[in-house]
Write a structure and sequence with these properties.
259 residues; alpha+beta; disordered N terminus; 9 helices
């Protein structure tokens, strides 16, 4: 006898089944470390074919809430709670207080943050980045690639690209730890006062490599964010290409009502 699926969105049966499993995880019925019922158990529970259950599990894995281990099945992930990503993280007072954006934001949410530097050095600017920086494609820039952790879980990768003529005389920007307040504080120390940060966001499925780096299931949703850091002189001195696990972030922005 099949089990009725309640509270899920309308659509094909496999989608309804996937919704119920996801709801059980979010409600704590299936807890971190628990095994998701096997295919045969789900076939018996819902009275559907194995093919329907396999399609449902594709949807469940895409949620990013489970990981599948060969020969063992799907296990509910132990992932930290969602944190807000607020526009307030770029306040000048935080930089002047020695707090880089990610560390300041994590501290406000009570999380333990860690940053792993993957690469610092020269590289040829990607075409899209070069356009944003206002330089020819292939121009040498300084690249800084990092992997961010929250409570021990990887949640974000970020690659900063900075014009070589801007950074060549700022040695701190070539160090793993650029000092209190991060790279934006060092740029302002050298006269590059910021006027605004412009961010473009797009949600999409993670590629296989991206999913592996962020410990996600293949195809799990991610948020691709590109930020331009613009100075009062109208110069873009950094383009930051960021990829975030979508289930780890809520975005909160303050939008002025006046001109």
């Amino acid at each position: 006898m099949g089990t009725a699926v309640e509270g899920g969105r309308s659509g094909p049966r496999y989608v309804q089944i996937a919704d119920e499993i996801v709801q059980q995880i979010r409600a704590g019925v299936l807890k971190p470390g628990d095994m998701v019922p096997s295919e045969s158990e789900l076939v018996d529970r819902y009275g559907v074919s194995g093919g329907t259950i396999r399609k449902a599990m594709v949807e469940v894995r895409a949620s990013g809430l489970v990981e599948t281990r060969h020969g063992k099945g799907s296990i509910v992930k132990d992932r930290p709670p969602v944190r807000h990503r607020s526009s307030d993280r770029f306040r000048r007072s935080l930089r002047q207080g020695g707090k880089a954006a990610y560390l300041a934001e994590s501290a406000q949410s009570g999380a333990t943050a860690k940053v792993s530097v993957l690469y610092i050095g020269p590289m040829e600017s990607p075409a899209d980045t070069a356009q944003r920086l206002g330089v020819p494609a292939g121009t040498q820039v300084l690249a800084r690639r990092r992997l961010y952790f929250r409570n021990g879980t990887p949640v974000e990768t970020a690659s900063s690209y900075l014009p070589w003529d801007v950074v060549k005389d700022i040695p701190e920007l070539f160090a793993e730890n650029p000092g209190g307040g991060g790279i934006y504080a060092r740029l302002e120390d050298h006269g590059h006062e910021f006027a605004e940060f412009v961010e473009t966001l797009q949600a999409r499925p993670a590629s296989k490599a991206e999913a592996s780096e962020l410990a996600l299931s293949p195809g799990a949703p991610v948020v691709h964010l590109i930020r331009e850091a613009r100075t009062t002189a109208g110069v873009v001195v950094e383009v930051c290409d960021t990829l975030m696990a979508a289930d780890q972030f809520v975005f909160e922005y303050r939008i002025p009502a006046a001109d």
